[in-house]
């Protein structure tokens, strides 16, 4: 893509992103969210897009739905997809959201009773350059509550992986402990969460849509058996199995 063409795409996406950003709901909207033990929550989804090594166009779009609070897999959908939108930093959602939205819509059409009541997204929500990451994008377009859970810190809006940040991580004593990720403006964009007693490395939780930050952190912790919350961990597990099969099939066809 030429520099001029990319500039046009960025301008269009910035405008669309700003419009969609106005639709994000940063508070609890569901009854189960107001319950200390999430009474009424029965299905939690996880989504991710995984690429075949050396290929940044063909990917596996994955959706899993787990029971809650047992965290057993109820539904799994893996689809190989070809991405048509270009990769531009800060606009990842424009590449990935359509495939993940398709997976949710397929489930809603085929087995609506299994549609998740909340989706954990492997990525960021409000903790983003323009406060509209993948979890926000998917949440607004699907209408479902969404939570962004990132494994690595996005150094954005004045949040940095500096000595202070490392000291805050070291101060997290047990699973469930967290500290805010505060932008230079003073706005809290998310929280670093120690997700389990056995893992000292945090995950980074932010609001996607239709959930408050405190509830998002509490929910993420309740879904963790290990460092990564189970809906996302199961997505990775199923995705890697599927992409390995696809890679093997491709090699055999050569």
UniProtKB/TrEMBL annotation:
Q: Does the keyword Cell cycle apply?
A: no
Q: Name one GO molecular function term.
A: metal ion binding
Signal peptide limits: none
Give the cofactors, semicolon-separated. Answer: Mg(2+)
Q: Which GO terms describe its cellular component?
A: cytoplasmic stress granule; nucleolus
Query: Where does this chain mainly localize?
Result: cytoplasm
What does the entry give for GO biological process? DNA repair
Xref: InterPro entries: Endonuclease-V
Subcellular location per the Swiss-Prot or TrEMBL entry? Cytoplasm, Stress granule; Nucleus, Nucleolus
The task this protein performs is described as:
Endoribonuclease that specifically cleaves inosine-containing RNAs: cleaves RNA at the second phosphodiester bond 3' to inosine. Active against both single-stranded and double-stranded RNAs. Has strong preference for single-stranded RNAs (ssRNAs) toward double-stranded RNAs (dsRNAs). Cleaves mRNAs and tRNAs containing inosine. Also able to cleave structure-specific dsRNA substrates containing the specific sites 5'-IIUI-3' and 5'-UIUU-3'.
- Give the record's subunit note: Monomer. Interacts with PABPC1; the interaction is RNA-dependent and stimulates ENDOV activity.
The entry sums up its family as follows: Belongs to the endonuclease V family.
This protein is called Endonuclease V
| Native organism | Myripristis murdjan
Give the gene name.
ENDOV
């Amino acid at each position: 893509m030429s520099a001029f063409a990319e500039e046009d795409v960025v301008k269009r996406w910035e405008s669309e992103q700003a419009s969609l950003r106005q639709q994000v709901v940063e508070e609890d909207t569901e009854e189960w969210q107001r319950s200390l033990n999430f009474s009424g929550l029965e299905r939690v989804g996880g989504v991710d897009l995984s690429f075949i090594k050396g290929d940044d166009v063909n990917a596996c779009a994955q959706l899993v739905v787990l029971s809650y609070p047992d965290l057993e897999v109820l539904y799994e959908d893996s689809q190989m997809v070809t991405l048509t939108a270009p990769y531009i930093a800060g606009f990842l959602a424009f590449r990935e959201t359509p495939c993940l939205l398709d997976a949710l819509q397929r489930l809603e059409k085929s087995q609506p009773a299994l549609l998740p009541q909340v989706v954990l997204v492997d990525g960021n929500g409000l903790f983003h350059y323009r406060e509209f990451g993948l979890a926000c994008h998917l949440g607004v377009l699907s209408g479902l509550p969404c939570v962004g859970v990132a494994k690595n810190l996005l150094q954005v809006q004045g949040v940095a992986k500096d000595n202070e940040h490392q000291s805050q991580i070291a101060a997290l004593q047990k699973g469930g402990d967290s500290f805010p990720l505060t932008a230079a403006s003073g706005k809290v964009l998310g929280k670093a969460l120690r997700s389990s007693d056995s893992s000292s490395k945090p995950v980074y939780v932010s609001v996607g849509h239709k959930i408050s930050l405190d509830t998002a952190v509490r929910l993420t912790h309740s879904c963790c058996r290990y460092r990564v919350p189970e809906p996302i961990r199961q997505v990775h597990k199923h995705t890697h199995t599927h992409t390995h099969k696809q890679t093997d099939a491709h090699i055999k066809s050569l």
